[in-house]
Amino acid sequence: MGATDEHGVWRGRDTWPTAEGTELDAPPPAASSYRAVPSRGPGAGQDPARARVIGVVGGRGGAGASTFAAALAARFARRTATALVDLDRCAAGIDVLLALEDTDGVRWPDLTSARGDVDGTQVLALLPRWGPCAVLSADRQRPSFPEPGVVADVLHALAGVCGVVVLDLERAGVVTGESVAAACDAIVVLAPRDLRTVAGVLAMRDRLVGHGAHVGIVAVGPSPGGLGADELARAVELPVLARLAVDRRTAAATERGGVPLTGAVARAAARVARAVGTDRTAGPAPDRATYGGGPARGGVGPAVGPGVGGAAGLGPEARLGTDARLGPGGQVGAGGGFGVDEPAGSVRVGAW
Asked: Where do the domains of the chain lie, and which CATH numbers do they carry?
């Protein structure tokens, strides 16, 4: 099924689980050519209203949205069934980021026939796993993407069998309105603190907030021109959910094969999980430094350490509850206060 190696890196499943009733056009040994057609009948036990759907999108290219989406999904997967869904039609596939590109399992091109009452339980069982998190990725070797109706039906099915579904949204699709942002309960915008980001977020802001989802930013620093997180938030008229300092060790870890689950990215993901109202109970710290998929790229070293100065969540932070609205004085409704969460230099790492 999978285990951690001596470096604390999760190695994906060695076998591909086949759900009863699923039709395969190829036998299990030909893993890379699987074409799964989920049952057209109602999925047993599905509850379409159960999952919380959270979208993650970059305010501009290179913002780190895919990495953050993965860290956020890993956070939720500690407590509930979670699926991470790649919706960037022009990218190489989020499985490459997670070192799952050689791991057996269904990708989007395998689901072109999945329409109507898709059985979410079967789809979930056929997806590759990144630690405890199911991953539905694009495929770099088969760059075709299903039509919008298929995407909507598959997401509806996954929402019926998961507690949380995290969507790695395509920025271009959000800007043009050709995305599934309308299905999201909350949308997190990764926002580097620069003027390009201000322009990029403003270009899609109306699309994001127009669907009624709670929308907030993760302010990524440092800023090349001194733009503060609060100034950025005022410019785009969106609350700050967390602050994140760029840590070069994160990029190094992903090159070796996995996304770090400690340090600044993990802390920011924890704060965002609280902010969107789905992670309010304390839990154990991550039991491994990095989730990975296939063999490590160049070997994975020790756990990624704490983030550099300006770590996630210091200073003003918005917590969005199920009915949050910004009111006078920057107050947020049923989700908590929008103000100083804790003094600079102090980060809660255990229970939050």
From this structure: 36-340 (3.40.50.300)
